[in-house]
Amino acid sequence: MGVLERIASLSSPYPLVQLEAPTPPKNGLQYPAPKICAKVFSRGDCERFYRSLDPAGPRQQCPYGFSVWPLQLGDNRVAITGLIAAPRFGSDRERLRAKEYPHNRVWSDAVTTWIRNVEEILKDGDVEREEEFSRRLDALHEIRRFNQIIKTNMERACEKESSTGDPDDAPVQLVRAYRASSLISLQLDALDLLANPASAMSFSPRPWVFYRTVDKLVRIYRVIADSRDVRIRLSGTSLSHAAVDQRTIHIIPSVFIDNAVKYSKAGETVEVHVSEGYYETLPVITLCVKSTGPVATPAEERVLFVERARGKAATAIAEGSGVGLTLAKVVAKQHNGWIGAQQRPLTNNRSEWTFTFQIRRLN
Questions:
Q1: Is residue 145 in some structural domain?
Q2: Do 210 and 328 belong together in one domain?
Q3: CB of 248 closer than 8 Å to CB of 357
């Protein structure tokens, strides 16, 4: 039984509404709730209200006068609706509901007991998640070991077949196989961080030429780009160092380039540009990845980096997990950098996207 199901099975003064970010569930209420909510939930004002809820925000009052407590339960965004529950808002609509539904009053001791039981379930859930993460990490490390063997052998094969000794000058099929193993390594790094995001906050920074990472990734992703008839053009240069975690810094340009190639159409170009300059008085290195992709609504654009969610237009074009930009945000925070995106609509269903990352340079 999952965490939400266990909570729903409690004798509860609160009905639960599970929200599918960034929209409420298609079928309305997923757990038993008062008939009045089931009747009005499909109306536009209720949908807009639940869609706008911030799990980290305070308790609010729904359009029909009921108290709503938004929160995050593990990976689930949930709204708990306590009919005529504390804290009392005292609105005319609430007084009307209290009069119509006197049995919906909730006593404070029942609320306290329910919250205590939920906290115990969440603690148990944390332990279960940690054990599951440990098992997944063990599996990832085993896959990484096998992939490293493949990658090493393919690199040697490319060097042997190359007249210059440069693996990239080997026959195209060998180069593609070699780069494919490199792409698998990138994905495994991302999965490692996803399984244990706290690991990104503890590292010893080392000076590194950020441009080298970007140049390497452009070479790797050309394998996918060529198969889609998409061009990648790298411009600019930077020989300055930044203090980085070499385990994670590549995730940002990797996510930017991967998304740009994924959502580009045949014949289009992905522009990757690295430059040096100043942000206010700070010396910075700036990465910009510009491409054409699906249009995002203002609501989708606001949660681009903070939610594991994908826009409707993006989902219709290509498959994806929706976690790439979330991980990029984690890595940017880890390096005290800045990350952002800008959309410029071109047509009804296509936009020009510019994804930017800035990190302080050391020289």
A1: yes
A2: yes
A3: no
Q: Which of 204, 295, 287 is nearest to 251 (CA)?
A: 287
Residue 124 within a domain: no
Judge if 215 and 282 occupy the same domain.
yes
Which residue positions in the chain have pLDDT lower than 50?
13-15, 18-34, 83-89, 102-107
Q: How far apart are the first and last CA of the chain?
A: 55
Residues 170-198: tens digit of each pLDDT? 888 888 788 777 878 777 777 777 767 77
Q: Report yes or no on 290 lying in a domain.
A: yes
pLDDT at residue 314, as a whole number: 74
Same-domain status, 209 and 315? yes
Q: What is the DSSP string of 78-137?
A: EEEEETTPSSP---HHHHHHHHH-GGG---HHHHHHHHHHHHHHHHHHHHHHHHHHHHHH
How far apart (Å, rounded) are the C-alpha atoms in residues 33 and 6?
16
Q: How much is the pLDDT for 84? A: 41
Q: Examine the fold and report which residue of 143, 165, 195 is the final residue of a domain before the chain moves on.
A: 195
Task: Tell whether 214 and 191 lie within a shared domain.
Answer: no
Q: How far apart are CA 189 and CA 235, in angstroms?
A: 26
pLDDT digits (tens, 9 = 90+) for 60-110: 777 666 667 777 665 566 676 654 433 344 555 555 555 555 444 444 555
SS3 assignment, position 23: strand
Structural domain of residue 295, as residue ranges? 201-360
